[in-house]
Amino acid sequence: MIVVCGGIKGGGGKTTLATNLAVMRALAGHDILLVDADEQDSASDFTVLRNQIFEPNGGAGYTAIKLRGQAVRSEVARMASKYDDVVIDAGGRDNTGHRAALLVANLYLVPLFPGSFDAWTLDSVAKLIDEASTFNDQLKSICFINRADAQGGDNEEAAQVARETEGLIFLEQPIGTRKAFRRSASEGKAVVEYRPKDTKAIDEITRLYRSVFDEKWILAQENR
Ligand SMILES: Nc1ncnc2c1ncn2[C@@H]1O[C@H](COP(=O)(O)OP(=O)(O)O)[C@@H](O)[C@H]1O
Ligand SMILES: [Mg+2]
Q1: 146 bridge partner residues
Q2: How wide is the angle at C-alpha 87 spanned by C-alphas 85 and 90, nearest 5°?
Q3: CATH number for the domain including 71?
Q4: Cα gap 213→224, rounded to integer Å
Q5: Which residue, of 27, 55, 84, 224, has the fewest CB within 10 Å?
Q6: Taking ligand 2, which is a single-atom ion, which protein residues have CB atoms under 5 Å away?
Q7: Taken in order 43, 44, 49, 54, is the CA torsion positive or negative?
């Protein structure tokens, strides 16, 4: 499966999502390619750190490359069959690389920050999906709230917009604001590897992981 983490917004959690999913899938025994298509290079920086930390145990556990622009499409199309799964961090801009990623993807994952400012960007996301879908009819798109607030109305504000956005499957279960995501990343680890264990963070990312890699589940959501 080729999974793209993206959106038209910084700080929503795209890199966190891409790196956690890549590590979790690799830990489950799959051969993973992590593609950094964002000029911020955060997924690559994470991997460099991870390779240092896990060097005695054979390194990061997945292969990582940087690709930009049209190469995101051509190189991923060429390399995908050599891996079980490809996870792409497409960054938060509507650029050639982001569009190229959507042309080869099976699944587009869009983390959304609570509140209306970020939700309003879903209009542009829907346009991107619509354009990509004319060339890529296998593309499915999933949106969920990341860094959800513990209380208040901002989660629901974003959720309402997401539910109404054409072409998006909205996951009702959010991922909360949990320090373990930031702390694990700064140690080159996925949240499932971080100690002390944050069981809520682990449960939330595991639920998302299952939704992402369960194609039957995705089809069922679409046909609801
Ligand atoms: N669920 C979460 N809880 C707490 N912090 C988070 C969560 N998701 C992401 N973060 C933190 O928020 C910041 C932005 O996340 P990042 O994945 O880099 O976003 P993006 O790649 O979309 O710009 C990072 O410092 C990251 O550690
Ligand atoms: Mg990022």
Answers
A1: 175
A2: 155
A3: 3.40.50.300
A4: 19
A5: 224
A6: 14-15, 42
A7: positive
Question: Does any ligand 1 atom lie closer than 6 A to the CB of residue 9?
Answer: no
Question: 């809520």: which residue's tokens?
Answer: 200
Total structural domains within the chain: 1
- Give pLDDT, residue 50: 98
Classify residue 193 by its DSSP letter. Answer: T
**Over residues 196-206, mean pLDDT:** 98
Q: Is 165 in the pocket of ligand 1 (CB under 6 A)?
A: no
Question: For residue 184, what are the domain limits?
Answer: 2-222
pLDDT score at 223: 64
85 confidence band (pLDDT: 50, 70, 90): very high
